[in-house]
Write a structure and sequence with these properties.
Helix content is 44%, strand content 17%. The N and C termini lie far apart (60 Å).
Length: 294
């Protein structure tokens, strides 16, 4: 790359409920990514509260991001969908090439942005997603880690690891407030709609590391998370299709979860931790989907 060549302009969008140690860790990671001379990074931070952060906190953000340009905006209405939509409305009016969504409780490698940029340029896609790896040693959290072959076409992305071309925003899709009743699902629906509209999403083994909150290390959280996954499924399908199709899909997916639960149960002797928790997870999701039927 010549110094005269145009750098790729990339916005990183961070949605946050508040400032803590993990938040500043992420900012330092972003700064390290910005040191590559092929890219120009800007950051948008959307706080989900009306209270304006204090001046010393702003100074600390500047200290951690150093030379990286950033903008802070606020969304008073609580809820992740409201925050994501605030971010989208800001981004639609900006001039940039690519955007990356990251959560404020994660860490990334120093070449994370460049890896996704290289991948999206080499592969025929407008959206790229990748693994979300928990830093906790609790084996049941591995159940939530998605894993696909490199370059595989997938049909939705998580907002904790997604990189996309600005042009996908022309689809005029927003994050739904209806599906996030149980705290998540809005990202799956958003990118499922993008996929339905013909936007190709591909998998790049370029991980994000989620710094696990202590309350997520309990078995009760594991149970509720999987049960809510089951409950959320029908809400996503209702918005993607219609009530009748969503109801039928819910029945099919319920029994698919039951079958997978049985399969993993028989494979427990091969890998006790992994297959035991997968068997339990799919059974709990089956129960969540059954609750949608009755």
């Amino acid at each position: 790359y010549s110094v005269f060549m145009k750098k790729d302009s990339i916005y990183i969008s961070i949605c946050s409920r508040g400032i803590n140690k993990n938040f500043f860790n992420l900012l330092r990671c972003i700064y390290k990514n910005s040191l590559n001379n092929k890219i120009k990074i800007k950051v948008i931070i959307v706080f989900n509260h009306a209270k304006i952060i204090k001046e010393f906190q702003k100074m600390k953000i500047t200290k951690n991001l150093k030379s990286v340009n950033y903008k802070i905006i606020y969304e008073q209405k609580l809820g992740i969908s409201n925050v994501r939509n605030k971010s989208l409305s800001y981004l639609k009016d900006r001039d940039f090439d690519y955007c990356c969504f990251l959560d404020d409780d994660c860490k990334i490698n120093s070449n994370f942005i460049l890896n996704h940029l290289k991948f999206i340029k080499k592969n025929n896609c407008n959206i790229v997603s990748g693994p979300q790896i928990y830093t906790s040693t609790k084996p049941f959290l591995k159940v939530f880690e998605r894993n696909y072959p490199q370059g595989k076409k997938i049909y939705w992305a998580s907002t904790n690891n997604v990189f996309f071309k600005k042009k996908i925003l022309k689809n005029k899709i927003n994050f739904s407030k209806k599906v996030s009743k149980y705290g998540y699902g809005e990202d799956q629906l958003f990118f499922s709609k993008m996929s339905k509209n013909g936007e190709v999403i591909k998998w790049n083994k370029n991980p994000v590391y989620e710094i696990t909150d202590k309350n997520r290390e309990s078995y009760s959280w594991f149970v509720m998370r999987n049960f809510n996954y089951g409950l959320t499924g029908i809400l996503i399908d209702k918005e993607l299709y219609n009530f009748f199709t969503a109801y039928l899909l819910n029945i099919l997916k319920a029994f698919l979860n039951l079958i997978l639960s049985i399969i993993y149960f028989f494979f427990i002797p091969l890998d006790k931790n992994k297959n035991l928790f997968k068997s339990i997870a799919f059974f709990i999701r089956f129960l969540g989907r059954i609750k949608n039927i009755i």
